[in-house]
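Reviewer comment 2.1 asked that we show a complete input and output for one of the modelled complexes. We chose the nicotinamide-adenine-dinucleotide case, as it is the one discussed in the main text.
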Amino acid sequence: MNHSADTVARLRAAFRSGRTKPVEWRVAQLRRLRAMLTENAPELAAALHADLGKSATEAQRTEIGFTVREIDHTLDHLDDWLRPEPAPVPAHLGTDARAWTQYDPLGVVLVIAPWNYPAQLLLTPVVGALAAGNAVLAKPSELAPATSAVLARLLRTYLDPEAVAVVEGGVPETTALLAERFDHIFYTGNGTVGRIVMRAAAEHLTPVTLELGGKSPAFVDRDADLKVVADRLAAGKFLNAGQTCVAPDYVLTDPGTAAALETEFVRAVESLYGTDPAASPEYGRIVDERHFDRLTGLLDSGRAVVGGESDRASKYLAPTVLADVDPSSPVMREEIFGPILPIVTVPGLDEAIDFINDRDKPLALYVFSESDDTRARIAAETSSGGLGYGLPLAHLTVSDLPFGGVGESGMGNYHGRYSIETFSHRKALLEKPLG
Ligand code: NAD
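Response of the prediction step:
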């Protein structure tokens, strides 16, 4: 047997033995995972810094602390979420019949993670898969090698080695894994690989969750307080040097507001990272040369209002805002996934809605408007994974909201109780006494 088949067989045997099913086992694993994160936070933060230039504050906030909060939320509510739910029984079955649903774990779950939040996006799905009582195979991203190595070692040490495995590696290793039969595959990354994952899963009729990306627009209404808008958009966009799946990809606004936003963005970037962001310890780096070259190739798509500077040796690309951007220019043809924020103009709300609906359904859509009517119209007339009014990114920190895309931005969702839904089968039960 090859290595992948071996690993999956071992996990399947553990699942079949029943060891992952008791709530006590699940809780113990979650507590171990929590201890893993808190006891090794400095080492993890150092790995995240090595891979992405992530600051210690950002590592704590968006990776370690984020996952710890998800664990705590799950530990607080797990009993409640797992409680069987009674269902009303129709009259023809008699008054002594009883019906209900219960959550069954699926079996062996494969989690494939990307490099941009390499700890959070590997571990948060793992939290859900364990909480639902599954055996788990975790595959970190090879593009964040330091974090991948630390996580592989720690997960093997802290969690039940019979029921949790880590396979490191890139395309060949992942391809080998995808040939195996899993009971669920949870993939976070781009749509091209998402299709590869779904095709492989189809061979075994394995359900998939695909957490993908795309261009998430930010619509700015002319009535909005542009100082607040620029501060919040810049903070959301330039976090992790723009390498965030729900980062505002571009600003959509009318020409007058666009002009007024320019100076606000210059001020906002300076207040976040000073006059020389390259020297700011809070500002991250591009993950590798391939992405660096791709991103610098997009800088010609508009006039840099702020930023534009880059240094290939250190993979530094300044927080950049581009004005006068044509909707057909290269920066508007792909997900940017880096620190470049184009401002695209449309005459007004109707055209903004058309602009959004003419393109792939985004993972997130952000709206900055004081008008209830505008906010309601966008909610009713567009489709996106999530919709944020007045604040980018934050919806994904609400553990009681489902996080996921729609259409080209993905399928399925997770976080909190939605992870239990994703990693369980909701079994229908009916009981009619024999007597
Ligand atoms: P990536 O390159 O790290 O790929 C993700 C995973 O797929 C990795 O584990 C990698 O080993 C594996 N992989 C790559 N090529 C493969 C192949 N040919 N066959 C099998 N497996 C393969 O990450 P990425 O795709 O560059 O990540 C960026 C994308 O992910 C963006 O589009 C972003 O929006 C999206 N994203 C989405 C979310 C979300 O939660 N929805 C979060 C982060 C990133």
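Residues 41 and 64 are 7 Å apart (CA to CA). We note this here for comparison with the apo prediction described in Section 3.2.
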